[in-house]
Amino acid sequence: MLAVYFDQPGGPENLYLKEVPKPSPGEGEVLLKVAASALNRADLLQRVGQYAPPPGASSILGLEASGQVAELGPGCQGHWKVGDLAMALLPGGGQAQYVTVHEDLLMPIPEGLTLNQAAAIPEAWITAFQLLHLVGHVQVGDLVLIHAGSSGVGTAAIQLTRKAGAIPLVTAGSPHKLQMAEKLGAAAGFNYREDFSEATLRATNGVGVDLILDCIGGSYWEKNINCLALDGRWVLYGLIGGGDVSGPLLSKLLFKRGSLITSLLRSRDNKYKQTLVKTFTEQILPYFSKDSPQRLLPVLDRVYQATDIQAAHEYMEANKNVGKIVLELPQ
């Protein structure tokens, strides 16, 4: 089978399609014939050698995929049959013509969604769902500040925040991205190139936000604490802005009685992920169906052929995308 590959860490120019052995499903696993996958920041970090896959996971890039069940491994419980369309949450391996995945990490594709749209759901939307509900404990009426509001996770978090009865505020880097975030339901948007902290305080009448979803990290720490409400929760799930902090973070956080919580999804064990996928499938997935009155929709920015993988990485690295970048695999 063909898979996205790189021989050594480095830039997008190192990426190419390579013929590799097709995997075989193990106990309780399904072989998925991949139609589409989607890019995540983790793919860029892995490509440059900064984010190794978890032990036992495929070294091939790709944390989510959609396609058709091609084979069932031994011990499958009968949830799936050959030919079923499905989307998968993966620790790696999605950017290939075939990938193996535990049957409980597959989800049905909601009616009315394309395979490309489905590929944009698992990693981004389940991450946003986990951050808001399991980690951030979002409550009705909460003010939620979502950094990188035009990203895959950000566009999902805006919609899920609204669905939870909370109020999403976002940061992004251009008027176009802020406008798109507001169309998705953001109550207000702030350009991070200016002082988003003071703008957030003005928008909340000086109270600040109850919850921050932060994939930036070090470069935002002081502004985050400044606009965090008393007893607020700051959820850190990425370090795009670096991991170093210089200054009185702890004293300022203590003064706010704030909570700093960190979270990653890829490195979680299968049991945790299976429970998370089950909860997401039951509570959120029905709202993606075309007949849902409060319909949720993945936001797709661009679709690339797998042969154009270098251009896809360059586009994401330039921070041009609003929503997800999808990769179509050769059929």
Describe the structure.
It is built from 10 helices and 15 strands. The protein is α/β, with parallel strands linked by helices. It folds into 2 domains: 149 residues, Quinone Oxidoreductase, Chain A, domain 1 (Alpha-Beta Complex), CATH 3.90.180; 138 residues, Rossmann fold (3-Layer(aba) Sandwich). The strands form 3 sheets. Strands 3, 4, 5, 6, 7, 14 and 15 form a 7-stranded mixed β-sheet that branches. Helix 4 links the parallel strand 8 and strand 9. The termini are close together.
Write the layout of secondary structure elements.
Blueprint: E1 2-5, E2 16-19, E3 29-38, H1 41-47, E4 64-72, E5 85-89, E6 98-102, E7 106-108, H2 115-119, H3 122-135, E8 143-146, H4 152-163, E9 167-172, H5 175-184, E10 188-191, H6 196-203, E11 209-214, H7 221-226, E12 228-236, H8 249-255, E13 259-262, H9 270-283, E14 300-305, H10 309-317, E15 324-328
Parallel strand pairs: 8-9, 8-11, 9-10, 11-12, 12-13, 14-15
Antiparallel strand pairs: 1-2, 3-4, 3-6, 3-15, 4-5, 5-7
Helix pairs in contact: 3-4
